[in-house]
Design brief:
Helix content is 30%, strand content 40%. It has five helices and seven strands, in the order E-H-H-E-E-E-E-E-E-H-H-H. The protein has a seven-stranded antiparallel sheet with strand order 1-7-6-5-4-3-2. A hairpin with a 2-residue loop joins strand 3 and strand 4. The longest helix has 26 residues.
Length: 164
């Protein structure tokens, strides 16, 4: 089981906003090339996200389904990774002062991936999820920059961000 954590310099509500925005996943989920569609009720339990994953020209179209959603605190997904089966991906957000301690727990759940789980596949998941958490950190802190203490967009900071 691949478990990782990352302290993110943004409040939990800001991090949750990324998890609750299905269309943001292509920005930070490693290997995701495009979001093909998402249920309007994402991230409610049972909602589905359709995406294209791959490396270069080799791609697969897959889905993930929300299995558990505790708004602002916990999101658990079951991701289909054809032809390897499914994986459980769990995000837990813990308030840490003004920041967020994000826990990520991922492991194969069904199919070939679950049967072939071993230290090498565990290492690959750790490396992938380390990068995923780095991407999510950058997305959350980039989006958090330019907001005032009430979470409103600061127009002066927004103007600066647009000129970079």
């Amino acid at each position: 089981m691949a478990q990782r954590q990352r302290l993110i310099d943004s409040p939990p509500a800001q991090v949750w906003d990324l998890l609750a925005d299905a269309h943001s996943y292509a920005q930070w989920v490693v290997g995701t090339q495009d979001i093909l569609g998402a249920d309007d009720r994402w991230p409610e339990v049972g909602a589905e996200l359709r995406f294209r994953v791959g490396i270069g020209p080799v791609t697969l179209e897959d889905t993930c389904v929300v299995r558990i959603c505790e708004s602002g605190r916990r999101l658990e997904l079951e991701a289909k990774a054809a032809p390897f089966g499914t994986a459980r991906i769990a995000f837990t957000l813990i308030p840490w002062g003004r920041h967020t301690l994000l826990l990520l727990d991922e492991h194969p759940l069904r199919g070939l991936g679950a049967r072939l789980e071993n230290p090498l596949t565990e290492l690959a998941l750790h490396l992938r999820n380390r990068r995923l958490l780095g991407n999510l950190y950058r997305a959350a802190t980039r989006d958090h920059a330019g907001r005032d203490s009430a979470g409103r967009r600061d127009s002066a900071a927004s103007g600066l961000a647009g000129r970079r």
